[in-house]
Every structure is written in structure tokens, then in C-alpha cells.
Amino acid sequence: MSSEPETDYEIAKSVEEQPIWEVTEPFGLDKDDLELYGDYKAKISQDAIDELLEGDTEDGDVILVTGMTPTPMGEGKTVTTVGLGQALNQIGEDAMIAIREPSLGPVFGIKGGAAGGGWSQVLPMEDINLHFTGDIHALTAAHNLISAMLDAHISKGNELNIDSRSVAWPRAVDHNDRALRQTIVGAGDSAGVTRMDEHVLTAASELMAILCLAEDIEDLKERISRIIVAYDEDGEPVTAGDIEAAGATAILLRDALRPNIVQTIEGTPALVHGGPFANIAHGTNSLLADYVGKKMGDYLVTEAGFGSALGGEKFMDVVSQLGDIEPSAIVLVASVRALKYHGLDMWPFEGEEVLQEEDVDAVEAGFENLDKHVSNLRQFGLPVTISINRFPSDTDAEIEAVREHYQDMDGVQVAESTVFGEGGEGGVELAEKVTDAVENYDGGFEPLYDLDASLKEKIETVATQIYGADGVNYVGSAEDDIAQLEEMGMDDVPVVLSKTFHSLSDDPAKKGAPEGWTLDVRELYPSAGAGFVVALTGDVMTMPGLPARPAAADMDIDADGTISGLF
Ligand SMILES: Nc1ncnc2c1ncn2[C@@H]1O[C@H](COP(=O)(O)OP(=O)(O)O)[C@@H](O)[C@H]1O
Ligand SMILES: O=COP(=O)(O)O
Ligand SMILES: [Mg+2]
């Protein structure tokens, strides 16, 4: 290792971690409240969760970190969440953070880990990016138990008269493996029914969403039993409860339901729990982690995936209406590289090198995208602070251009953040501006739609007011799906729109703030256990694929267990 640690892994290994109970103690959790997984990782015990949630401690303020439409590399929401949490503690506040658990898919794929980076990471990063406390493995096992019980039912008498062509429950795996997108199961099993099947990434499993929304074991089991796994010959839904899978599935998730707690590089307590992506699911960590976090701290900094039109919108229209949580302030992460990516209208993505050359004109041309995210977020009645996440190649002229463009804009403030390179110290301006915004917040938060609006009204509200579409085309099975959902009484729930994260529109090639287009919704299906409806647009993959040379190709481990290539 060179004198100065350089990679995320080297920086993480250069830090002396504290025993996790010493990190949580000042925030009200002592060693007896934790179920230790070694000295640096723990789950919070059910008794401690119950005590926190039933206690009369006032909830802290929730700061939601979202972002502009990102390059495929990501623009630093997780880094900013960790860095801002550290910065708030540096300025004397009691702040917690809550983030999602990384999936092995992107870790070994393109994007790499999701434990932050530089001097704003959660530790132990290699555990968190790999097996952590086993929650995602438990989810995968639980998901596939339902699949196995469903196929056993179909091939052993099929008492429920399931139409094997209408199975609605895929299999799951926690890898980006395009070869598993469409599969044939039951081949060669003489008693079995050979049928088409598919695999989703575990992050896209409805069980992941359920784990992130369930409040206790009873709620978990009840949600699982509501999962629609297939339809019978009369088109009636068949649930996981109908095939008697709810109890066993809940057993497999018993421990996974409890939030994990670790620490940041600077010793800020970090809840890491659940991992739905925001393009194919609702995109934020578990409600239980949020509930515990806002009891433990005066501030809870949490992130929602991809750009604000995906994770941000879903946090405020879906999560805040399904759970007891709402933000008091928004941090909108912007980067010079993403502004240039939009300003240069770059698609397909040509790599970060092109975006590292100084180009103030391209930065200014990219404001179209960031302006749209600002105006979108202001519709929710929340104060917005733009955090310019400074990368090493950014120049003062580029940063100044961003500051100038937003410093006099109504309803928004701007701060430069160097938390990647400097940890909490690099986020003091951001922390001071965000706490100021929270203090002056008038409590005007409102989701964009009421739950009693029709499914079409909800979809059209998001499409026109957030994505910038002129309207919505219902193609494929969408109209029939809506009719069936209304008949099932699944129309008074939030809608999770599944859409590309590369654009505000449903066309990944369109950068900036596309106008004069219509959103195509091609299919809708119920997530009856999670309590929302998913609407599919474009050709978003619930099973991403690996590139020809994935990040995994550069990973290695040496004789003493030192890992390289994990970032
Ligand atoms: N200011 C920065 N300088 C250098 N690298 C950064 C910076 N911010 C983020 N990164 C890196 O960019 C990638 C995306 O950051 P991340 O916080 O995961 O983004 P997001 O959560 O928005 O997807 C990670 O590899 C991270 O380490
Ligand atoms: O769901 C996506 O999350 P990130 O934007 O943090 O990668
Ligand atoms: Mg992230």
C-alpha cells in the first residue's frame, strides 16, 4: 500500500474501527440492545426496536438525499449521505444515517459497491458490499422457496387449479445474469410441468419491498401471504398464503427483518438495511431502519436511489404514504460530470474521461436537467439544497458556474461538498445550510397524489409533473391490467413506476429535460404484499446483465485475505 491510502478499500482498511456498541451507546443503544455479528456489525434486537418505537422520544428530522439524472457511474448520493451525516456530527448535531445494502449484481458488474466512497464510507465496506449479515441471501432463499412450493403444487395434483402459463412469481438470484432472464423449468421432471420462467435480481423481488415496508413479524407474514404468485384457470389470483408458504418464508426472513447497524469512517452510526433499486422498485432502505434512526438521532439522513424522478418521487409518493415518515428537507446531489453528460447530450455513455476535461459551456448546457429536478422537488413543498459533489477533475470555474446559476434561485440553496476527499469536514457548508433549511421549514410537505385517485391519474400525475411527458399511452396489456387491478380493489394504492434511470423520459438516449414526448406504459402488476402497483415502462430490466468485462474481472484476494478491486 502506498504511504497514503488511495482506493476505497485502502482508505477503509486504514481506519481503526470502534467496537459497534461504543458507536451506538451515545445514541441510546448499548451492547445488550445489539445482536453482534463480530465487533463491527450488529442487528438491533427486537426488544430494543420495540423500546425505541414505543418510547416517547421525539422523532428527529428526516433529510432525504436524492440526485439529478446520473451518469451510469452514479453522482454520489450515498457518499453525500454518509458525508453529510459525518458533517452534522462534526458541527455538534446528533445525526444518524440510513442507507440501503448493496446488491452483488452491481458490485461485481459495472457500478461497484454502494457503501459510499473515499473518506465518506460505511465500514466494514468489504463485508457490507459482500455477504454483510446475510439478509440478501435470506431473501433469495425465501423468494425461491415460494417458487419451489408453487411448482410442487402445480405438479403434484394442482388442487388450486393454477394455470401454469399464468405464474406471476419468478425466481430470484443476487447476480446480474442475463442468461437467467427467460428460463425453462420443470424440463426432464417426469412428474413436473415444464413451463417458461424468469429470474429477477433479488433487489427486484417483491419480498425485498415487503422486507423494507414490514413493521414486525406478524405484518411480514401477513404481507407475504398476500403475494399473488399465479392465477387459476378462471383468472382468479392465487396467493402465497393459498399455497401455505407464508409461515416458512417468514421463518427464513426472521433475522433479516431487523435493521443492521454499522459505523462510518468517522464513527457516525449507520443503519444499512434492505436494498430495492429505484428504477425497478421503490428504491429506499427499510422503514424500520428509518423509524429507529429518527428515534436515535435529531437528524436522520437517508437516500433514495437514482435521480429524484425515481427514488425521490417514490419516497415522497409511495413510502411516505405507506409508512409514517416524511422528509423535512431535500439534498439534491449534482455533479459537474453529470451536468456535462447532459450538456453534451452524451448517449451512449462514452466514459468518465471525456467528462473530466474542463468545459464550462457543457456544464451550463446541462443545467436544463438539474433545473427540472429542482422544480420537480419544489412541488412537494420541501426546501431544496443542491449539493455540488466535487470530483477531483472539477475546476473552480465549473463549480463557480453552478453556484452562480442557483445562488439567487427561489426556494433553493447551493453548497459545495468535498466529503469524498475530506469526510465530514468537507460537508460543513452543506450541513449548516440544510439545518438552516430544516429550522425554517414550514411543514408544507404534500405527496403529488392522493391514494383515492385512480391508477391512471396517479401515473399521469407523475408522468407529466415529474418526468415532463405530455401524457401517457397505455400499450400492451396495460388497459386490461388496469381493469383487472380495479376489479381486485388494488387501485387505491401508490404506483411504483419502473423506468430507465438514464433519462427523465422513458428513452435512455434523451438527456436534459425532454419535452414533446409521451410516456408508454406497457404493463401493470400488483405487489399485493408490498401494497403497491408496479407500472412498467420502456424495456427496464428486472434482471440486469454483466458487461463483457465486469468489475469482477479486476478483483482478487491474496494469501492473507486482502481483497483488491472492490470499490
Ligand atoms: N466526489 C467524488 N469524487 C470521486 N469519486 C466519487 C465522488 N463521489 C462519489 N464517487 C464515487 O462515484 C461512485 C458513485 O457514488 P455513489 O455515492 O455510490 O453514488 P449514488 O449513490 O448516487 O449511486 C462511487 O464509486 C463513489 O465512490
Ligand atoms: O437504486 C439505485 O440506487 P443508487 O442511485 O444509489 O445506485
Ligand atoms: Mg447509492
Shape descriptor reads globular
Q: What is the β-strand count? A: 23
Largest sheet: 12 strands, mixed
CATH uppermost class of the largest domain: Alpha Beta
Amount of helix:
25-40%
CATH hierarchy: architecture of the largest domain: 3-Layer(aba) Sandwich
Structure description:
This protein is α/β, with parallel strands linked by helices and 567 residues long. The chain folds into 3 domains: 8-133 and 256-439, 3-Layer(aba) Sandwich (Rossmann fold); 135-252, Domain 2, N(10)-formyltetrahydrofolate synthetase (2-Layer Sandwich); 455-536, Formyltetrahydrofolate synthetase, domain 3 (Roll), CATH 3.10.410. The strands form 5 sheets. Strands 1, 2, 3, 4, 5, 6, 12, 13, 14, 15, 16 and 17 form a 12-stranded mixed beta sheet that branches. The protein has a 4-stranded mixed beta sheet with strand order 18-20-21-19. Strands 7-9-8 form a 3-stranded mixed beta sheet. The longest helix has 21 residues, at 135-155. It is globular. The model has no long low-confidence stretch (mean pLDDT 95). The site of formyl phosphate has 10 residues, from α4.
